[in-house]
Write a structure and sequence with these properties.
The protein has 5 domains: 60-127, no CATH class; 156-386, Penicillin binding protein transpeptidase fold; 442-519 and 788-801 and 836-951, Beta-Lactamase (2-Layer Sandwich); 524-646 and 754-779, no CATH class; 655-734, no CATH class. The chain is α+β, with helices and mostly antiparallel strands. A 7-stranded mixed beta sheet has the order 1-2-16-15-9-3-4. Strands 11-10-20-19-18 form a 5-stranded antiparallel beta sheet, sandwiched between helices. Helix 2 (47-58) packs across helix 9 and helix 13 crosses helix 16 (380-386). The chain is 49% helix and 12% strand. Strand 18 and strand 19 (893-909) form a beta hairpin.
């Protein structure tokens, strides 16, 4: 008894001593139990999360306001943000602003959105699943549109329920669970707990699997916004979960609609590797097409019926019409479902399962078929029908149906320019930008003109357009081998706006902007302007002089133009510029072809197109109207001689220096020719047996010796090393007994210098090439031109001598409906006057004469407005016959090959419009045709029903560069 009493006493004492600790532990256990209960309840109800997160989400807003934003942040390098151009927007804006585009409106993020962005949370807004480049015409109607992904579910109800069930079974089973309207879709608590425990165990056992805890919502955040679409750290995971949680409560505490949208977002945008012919593949719809060639609508019809094995609606979807499922139908459903399922499971490692490890995909898909049947997600019948189906991934995506290139050539050109403007190197990347561009093109007119031009490739269409009338085309001429092109511009307030640029070709080559063509007598227009410019310059210099001072002005005898201007100012009572230019147009020059002209390094004779003109001495105005060649040859001679004899710099160059320049220039020509010849035949020319050949020209002999010692020398190195040898090779030329030869070469050098000056004036007016052929033949087309460049010249005339830019893109909107939205418009720089207004008015009247009485008179009154009045039309015709001639000794013609034949007409239409029309034949077909510029005039006439509505006021006003 005593021992028992002692034991009880000891136990009581121990309890008294430990009671506080036990009470504390009990309290902690009770608190933990309560916390667990609360967490469990919160996990089920999400009441606290919904309240807090929805309140936070309410402050995540943005607005778009005028001007540049001071409250905008652009995203990091997530795949979604890079693909759509959001990450690159600062660079795009910088490039555009230095190219005359101004920000007119931009997004402003709310303070809370800016603060969350500062802490690494992805900007929270309702993201779109599709985006791409959109080109709109001047009316805001689509010219071109790309949307990626191309095949999407627009709403949850459009997704076959079987696909929804399969996706949730694989990835996120509790996402659409009922009974919890406030559920946070970013967290699935049991999966998260398993993932945390798995990670913890893996730290001790590296072979233990570590399952992922990502829900569909966090996966979307990852592959859209995390760098490279990956989760590389715990902070990455927390950022994804925080962003997905906030996005879930954007519409308030009830997340059911948002959870359904997550299913749609995932199916529309999940990355599924890259496929040849498609590039990056995103979304189930595009993946079914790219990897299996499966039509999106057909797949959805089959899968929507696969849930009901008793009956299904036929394709016609007739009301109350049902059909029993047949084995064939079940088999079709099984194939479609297994293909879709394979892509859903492949998303875990798409580059492996769809590219390198395709052989692993069937087994993984079959295992999911069995699991889903065991879980009651699919029927046993569907499982059994699907298991034997073989998965055959395509090596490249099926070809899309494309329209003929002629229909999309203008948009291709616009996209090319946009690519250069933004610094985006490929059309692939450009088309995936979230960008809408308003162009100056009139889409309706573009389509109508293109349709008519393509019809001309058929004989019936060409005849209907009058191209065979009056022998414009011969009966044997095939219109299919001709290219027809048209461009039309409208003069805006501060810019020239391209409304139509169409041609009949199905090749990417753009004849309007990419060719150097002999356009014949259209060059007379440039020559006329050069002539009138010199008259205006001399008038400005001499019209301020009194009679005595004017008489004292020294004008060289060879400067016929200078002498004429001085005489006019001496005799005229009206000393205004307009009077001088009018008199210059009435100046008469011989059209005789009897005279030979020393030009272009030799003696040349020229002929008129119409022999009736040979005996005439027409005025310059009449010569332009009737396109008289010899008058313009003599006019070009006057311009050249004025530059030679009126330039004090050129006159001051000593004779020996001019000869040295000639020797250097001609020596360069020979060295270049010999260098190419040696490179083509090195074995034959670089042997010792070539001494006899080398003796034919000292520069060839020097070059052979130089290349024997330096066989890898470049042409630039050879030219640099041969400077002294070039002068020595022409040592004979510097001897006084060769004065005649010296004179010829000095004149040649002076002519080259004069054409360099003429070239600078032509370039100021838009001439596109780096040099002119130093020959009077440039006046009738020998130096070539481009339709687009001539249209620019007509724009200067239409705008009274002011050169305006011609932007293709009038305005742009990046990232519409996002916190990065940026709107820009083209703001033209200050207009540049390049010609006197008086000069362009004189030229315009002369061009109208060409239509009313001259070579384009078939167009007289061809354009009539709604009021019945003729629309003023002026222009210049041109026929180009570019030939490759080979001459023998004494200038004898050995062979002549037709390279190109063109018929062109550059025109002014009404008060605001101008453009070009051209017909082109290229070798070997060029030799078959004899058409003239009248054919181009007839083509424009046939287009009048399409073009007249454009000329009417207000035809296309939504895109007018300010």
């Amino acid at each position: 008894m005593l021992r028992r009493a002692s034991a009880v006493s000891l136990l009581a004492g121990a309890l008294m001593r430990t009671a506080p600790k036990l009470l504390l532990c009990a309290g902690l256990l009770a608190a933990a139990a309560i916390a667990l209960v609360l967490v469990a309840r919160e996990a089920q109800s999400a009441r606290v999360q919904a309240s807090v997160l929805s309140e936070l989400a309410r402050g995540l807003r943005f607005t778009v306001a005028a001007g540049r934003s001071d409250a905008i942040r652009f995203p990091g390098p997530g795949p979604y943000d890079q693909r759509r151009g959001y990450t690159q927007l600062p660079a795009f804006i910088e490039r555009l602003t230095v190219r005359d585009y101004d920000i007119t409106a931009q997004a402003r993020m709310s303070p809370r959105m800016l603060a969350f962005d500062q802490h690494g949370v992805f900007p929270t807004y309702r993201e779109s699943n599709r985006a791409g480049l959109e080109l709109l015409d001047c009316r805001g109607e689509p010219l071109y549109a790309e949307r990626f992904p191309q095949r999407v579910y627009e709403r949850f109800d459009a997704v076959p329920p079987l696909l929804v069930d399969a996706l949730l079974f694989i990835e996120n089973r509790e996402l659409l669970a009922s009974g919890s309207p406030r559920r946070n879709p970013a967290v699935e608590w049991d999966r998260l707990a398993n993932a945390v425990l798995g990670r913890a165990r893996r730290t001790f056992d590296s072979g233990h699997p570590a399952p992922g805890g990502s829900t569909l919502a966090t996966q979307i955040e990852k592959y859209r916004h995390s760098p490279q679409g990956r989760t590389d750290s715990l902070s990455d995971k927390m950022r994804q979960m925080a962003s997905a949680s906030l996005r879930a409560y954007l519409d308030g505490e009830d997340t059911l609609m948002r959870r359904r949208q997550i299913v749609v977002d995932y199916l529309d945008t999940v990355p599924l590797a890259a496929q040849a012919g498609s590039g990056e593949v995103n979304g189930l719809g595009d993946a079914m097409w790219a990897w299996y060639g499966r039509d999106f609508d057909e797949t959805n019809r089959l899968l929507s019926r696969a849930g009901d094995e008793a009956q299904w609606l036929p394709v016609s979807l007739q009301p109350r019409t049902v059909m029993a499922v047949t084995p064939a139908t079940l088999q079709q459903q099984a194939v479609a479902f297994k293909q879709a399922l394979s892509l859903l499971v492949a998303q875990r490692r798409p580059s492996h399962y769809l590219v390198a490890g395709q052989s692993d995909l069937p087994a993984l898909t079959d295992s999911h078929l069995r699991l889903m049947a065991d879980a009651g997600i699919i029927s046993a019948a569907l499982r059994d029908a699907a298991l034997p189906v073989r998965l055959r991934l395509l090596p490249h995506s099926p070809a899309e149906i494309s329209v003929p290139f002629a229909w999309r050539k203008t948009t291709a050109t616009t996209r090319s320019r946009l690519s250069a403007l933004l610094g985006v190197p490929s059309a692939y990347d450009l088309d995936r930008l979230d960008l809408s561009v308003v162009s100056s093109i009139d889409g309706r007119a573009q389509r109508d003109v293109t349709r008519r031009l393509r019809a001309l490739k058929q004989r019936a269409g060409a005849k209907a357009a009058g191209l065979y009338a009056f022998r414009l085309l011969g009966e044997g001429d095939d219109p299919a081998k001709l290219s027809f092109s048209v461009s039309l511009y409208e003069r805006g307030e501060h810019a020239n706006l391209l409304r139509v640029q169409a041609d009949s070709g199905d090749q990417p080559f753009d004849v309007n902007e990419g060719a150097k063509l002999d356009m014949g007598s259209t060059a007379k227009l440039r020559t006329l302007i050069s002539y009138l410019e010199l008259v205006a310059e001399l008038h400005a210099r001499w019209s301020v002089l009194d009679a005595d001072a004017l008489a004292a002005v020294q004008v060289p005898e060879q400067d016929a133009l200078g002498r004429w201007v001085r005489r006019h100012l001496s005799l005229s009572t009206d000393r205004s510029l307009a009077a001088a230019l009018e008199a210059a147009m009435e100046r008469r020059l011989s059209a005789s072809p009897a005279e030979a002209f020393r030009t272009g390094g030799g003696m040349h004779r020229f002929v008129n197109f119409n022999r009736v003109d040979d005996a005439r001495t027409p005025s310059v105005r009449e010569a332009l109207k009737d396109s008289v060649n010899l008058v313009f040859i003599r006019l070009m001679r006057d311009v050249v001689q004025h530059h030679i004899h009126a330039d004090p710099t050129a006159a001051g160059v000593e004779r020996r220096e001019q000869l040295a320049r000639f020797a250097d220039a001609e020596g360069r020509v020979f060295i270049t020719r010999f260098f190419r010849m040696v490179r083509e035949h090195p074995q034959r020319l670089l042997t010792n047996d070539s001494a006899q050949l080398a003796g034919r020209h000292p520069l060839l002999q020097w070059l052979l010796e130089y290349l024997r010692q330096r066989p890898k020398a470049t042409l630039a190195e050879v030219l640099a090393a041969s400077e002294q040898e070039r002068q020595q090779a022409y040592g004979w030329l510097f001897k006084t007994r060769h004065a005649g030869a010296q004179d010829v070469r000095i004149r040649s050098q002076q002519e080259v210098a004069a054409f360099a000056q003429i070239h600078r004036t032509w370039q100021r007016l838009g001439y596109p090439f780096d040099s002119l052929t130093p020959s009077y033949a440039t006046a009738i087309g020998a130096s070539g031109d481009r339709p687009a460049a001539l249209a620019e010249l007509m724009g200067i005339i239409a705008n009274d001598g002011v050169r305006l830019p011609a932007p293709r893109m009038v305005s742009m909107v990046f990232a519409h409906g996002t916190p990065y939205e940026t709107q820009l418009e083209y703001r033209a720089a200050a207009p540049q006057r390049v010609l006197p207004a008086e000069l362009t008015r004189i030229v315009r009247l002369a061009l109208v004469d060409v239509v009313e009485e001259g070579t384009a008179r078939r167009l007289n009154r061809a354009f009539v407005g709604r009021d019945g009045q003729a629309i003023e039309l002026g222009g210049k015709t041109g026929t180009g016959d570019h030939r490759f001639d080979v001459h023998g000794k004494g200038g004898r013609l050995i062979s002549s090959r037709a390279v190109d034949r063109t018929a062109s007409f550059v025109f002014l239409l009404g008060k605001r419009h101008f453009g070009t029309v051209m017909i082109h034949a290229h070798e070997p077909d060029a030799a078959q045709y004899r058409f003239t510029s009248a054919l181009a005039a007839q083509l424009l006439k046939s287009l009048s029903p399409v073009l007249v509505p454009l000329v009417e006021p207000g035809a296309c006003t939504s895109a007018s560069a300010s």
